[in-house]
Amino acid sequence: MDRRDFLKNSGVMAAAAALAPSLSSCSGNSSDISASLTAGKGVPEAYDCDLLVVGGGPAGTCAAIAAARMGVRTIIMDSGNCLGGMATKGLVGPFMTSYDRYGEEMIIRGLFSEIVDRMVEKGWALHPEGIRWQSPYTAWIKDGHDHVTPFEPEGLKFTLESMCAEAGVKILYHTSFVEPLLRGNRVCGAVVFQKQGMRKIKARIVIDATGDGDVAFRAGVPCSKGCAERGGTMQPTSLFLRIHNVDSEKLEADVTRHLPEFRRVNNVSYRALHWNVAQAEANGEWDIARKSVNIFKSVRNDEWVVNSTRIKDIDATDSESLTAGEIEGRRQVQVLMNFFRKYVAGCEDAVLSCSASTLGIRESRHIEGEYILKAEDLINGVVPDDSILLASNSVDVHGGGATANSSVYTTINAKWYGVPYRCLVPLELDNLLVAGRCLSANSDAAGAVRVMPPVMAMGHAAGVAAALCLKGGALPRELDTDALRAELKAQKAFL
Length: 495
Known about the structure:
Blueprint: H1 3-9, H2 30-36, E1 45-54, H3 58-69, E2 74-77, H4 110-122, H5 153-167, E3 170-172, E4 176-183, E5 186-194, E6 197-208, H6 214-218, E7 223-225, E8 241-244, H7 248-258, E9 263-265, E10 268-270, H8 274-282, E11 295-297, E12 304-306, H9 319-343, E13 351-355, E14 365-367, H10 375-379, E15 387-391, E16 395-398, E17 407-410, E18 417-420, E19 432-434, H11 443-449, H12 452-472, H13 481-490
Parallel strand pairs: 1-2, 1-6, 2-3, 6-19
Antiparallel strand pairs: 4-5, 5-6, 7-14, 8-12, 8-13, 9-10, 11-12, 15-18, 16-17
Helix pairs in contact: 3-5, 3-12, 4-5, 12-13
């Protein structure tokens, strides 16, 4: 079955022939439109907006702020109780590099840079300019970890909410996406579930920032999961944690003594604390599929961010699978806490500050868009004419080697690469953009651009694109990308 047949059978193309090629098909008389929608029958209409952003993670929040600043009536919704997604609920940090391959220039700017500057001013972040590779803030890692940004998740929550308020974004927490409102091949909003019950949100454009491509998938956009070359396997998940009451001077001195031993053998990393891991493993007190520990110094001197759980075979689009993963993640957190207190210098009295409230998801669905980004594009430094961001993040595929302990890590051969706007535009379906790790990319390419600085730049671009479409009456796939790039540059994006 080809894509068009799939969409027809899904009911998405039912009225396409009768629609005029403009955004006006999602506006006009409310009762007439409600009667023509293919979802939400009998569900009360609660909200009406120009732009609906589904998902309040880094990409979605940047999209909402960017669009609202351009005068667009914007709603952002999230099933949780804060913005920031993986960066706040998931405790994922630091922000990975926002600089070029050689650490010479900050290339992800715009809203990302503004967010960082605001947090630095409040003492909630350290500016990446002063954070160099192979330091405690980078887990002593060199490749791909130059100029990272340590930050406080609580400070990020406040910063993002403040920026949304300033821009006029309406935030809806405790609001879960159920299904898209469709009129022919156009997305016109969403059916959502709130405490009050089922509700409809009408919108002229929708941005899918769910990470898992939930809106696109339910609207009939062709999607894949995981890596086709690896049998659809998805990268393992992590449950981040933070520990405090650490004697950081003692810990740093011990790691520094072992730096000459840092190495990668058959795609298995032997980095920080691998000497302790080997000892714990020999004593039967380590059963995590890692040979070393990624431990990043936080903004506070005695606190460290730990990214060393590894939960395999989790499908982020399945609630039962997520539940099992979170339970296993918390078990591994206890293994790690025992490990730190018993084996790691300076951590004898370490205290668990918190573990993440959600799994760190590296991969789930990849939508099929106007262009599919490929790893070789990144590695070779390709910059398409419609690039909406430049980045240098390495191809990082956890569990992509021969064993669960291994990974594939490939640095790029250029100063940077570009991510084209076409990767945000789904095939066949109109009035919908995607932003975040569910963009149109193969598994390996997504393993590079899924990290937060490029994801936030993607969101910024998607929000600006939506605003330009709404102002000019164009569909997202019809948008003049030269005009989009010009506006992004005017908003201090680096292109």
